[in-house]
Amino acid sequence: MFDFDGTLADSFPFFVLTINHLAEKHAFRKIPLDEVESLRELGPRELMKTLEVPVWKLPAIAQSFIKLMQEDLSKIPLFENIEEMLAHLSENGVILGLVSSNGYENVTRVLGSSCRHFSYFECGASFFGKASRLRQLLKKAGCQSSETIYIGDQITDCEAAKSVGIAFGAVSWGYSTEEILKTLSPEETFENVAALKRLVSSEKTA
Question: Are 198 and 133 within one domain?
């Protein structure tokens, strides 16, 4: 299973561009643009505290972000070599699913022709609600948790995977820094997109 934003899609620069617009609209603390990069060092609860965002505002903020992205998807590219990597996994028998907080339309439009490699989608999960979506996808696919890994870039991705009892694979190029993700002891760490191809040998060994 793959996360989308920060894992497959390079949306952090768009987040940087829109964070203060969202802050103005939803009345949370603005961040100087030269400090936005430092947000990657924070966990989700630390981030909410820093931005002074109460939990009840998260769904509205997320929907606003999704809508802004939908209006300008040309600014959201896939990371380099993502299409080739997904094709390699799919062609070698790895069943692919996607679990994301982003909307289905955004996800599928950015993925484009790469959608064909995915058998399952669970989109629109709440910020702290990915665990239930992971369970739903496992049920749909008829897969055991021991046969599954969730690939993501944030602390919430790791927390969701561990709460469902599946392995977590941390990527080094997303929203959270590699250093923070390593403190969570992920089962796998991927230093670049090409490294994800080794999931084929892991799958065949299982």
Answer: yes
Q: Does the model's pTM come out above 0.85? A: yes
What DSSP assignment string belongs to 94-155? --EEEE-SS-HHHHHHHHGGGGGGEEEEE----TT-HHHHHHHHHHHHT--GGG-EEEESSH
Cα 148 versus chain centre, distance: 16
Q: What is the CATH number of the domain that holds 90?
A: 3.40.50.1000
Share above pLDDT 90 across residues of the chain, in percent, rounded to a whole number: 69
List the domain range (segments joined by +) for residue 183.
82-205
Is 100 exposed, middle or buried, given 0-12, 13-18 or 19+ CB atoms closer than 10 A?
Answer: buried
- CB-based contacts of 120: which residues, under 8 Å, 6+ apart? 96, 97, 98, 137, 140, 141
- Dihedral sign from CA coordinates of 193, 37, 72, 26: positive
Same-domain status, 171 and 187: yes
Which pair of structure tokens corresponds to residue 60? 């509205």
Q: Which residue has the tokens 């997303």?
A: 174
Encoding tokens for residue 77?
Answer: 């590219």
